[in-house]
Write a structure and sequence with these properties.
The chain is 39% helix and 14% strand. The protein has helices at 40-48, 71-82, 98-113, 137-151, 154-168, 201-210, 215-221, 240-246, 262-265, 267-283, and strands at 25-29, 53-56, 91-96, 122-128, 171-173, 179-181, 226-231, 250-255.
Length: 284
Amino acid sequence: MDQHTDPARHDARPQDGRSTAARPGVVFVHGMRTSSAIWSSQVDHVRRAGHEAVAVDLPAHGARRAERFSMGRAFEVIDGAASSFRPGTPVVVVGLSLGGYTSLAWAARRTRAAPDGGAPHLAGVVAAACTADPRGKPVALFRDAARLAVSGTTAARRAALRTWRAPLGWVRSRPGGTDVPAVHTGAPGGMVDEAYRPGWDVVTDALTGLAGRSSVASLRAIRAPVWLVNGARDRMRLEESRHLAAAARGALVVVPDAGHDVNTEAPAAFNHTLSRALDEFARR
């Protein structure tokens, strides 16, 4: 891997004598317009290593698609998942894109409320595809584009999709040149049927929730270690160095040959990185 910051390599297997209960439980938080299904490979991977794990559906997604997205409700969902493990189990939160920003904001909120780590203890955060600070003009641009996609004319919707395609890579090209929004199901290249895909209104709600929230400020507030993971081809790698510098105990891993959806585009590499991060968090 191309690693801007490469912590000492460790054997990902737990040390002899370490009880299963001492291993962190892992909460996975998905990205925009997807669901908990994108984490199937990672959930299986960490469970095989002896970790408790749960992948949540954010409001307006998956099993919670009837709810409207808000950051407050998203925090409640993560709170519930973090409290679902056996008593005494430290918690690691792993988020992608919207889930990454939400996880950082949740961890910062938790740190401010319980500086000693809280109960259950926050052992660490793995935040993927979220090193472009949402506090600023880019988020406003994407939010306005999403509003056009919801309520604009056909031409406006096409312009909105072009706005999203250029920086985010969330709209992929099918053979023959037809552009379609891509939503992963957990298998690389898997698509969610259009009937089950969250609408564009969730994008406006989510970006409204992120607006004014700085991921850099969240990183500065978090006392637990944070690993930042990006795909090398992700066009949202705008402020990696700034985000890394903001983390009190941070690491940055860049996965070659992967884009924004790094966990599904390069699952083996992502799982390897995840094992290393969990081992590092457990050692601390």
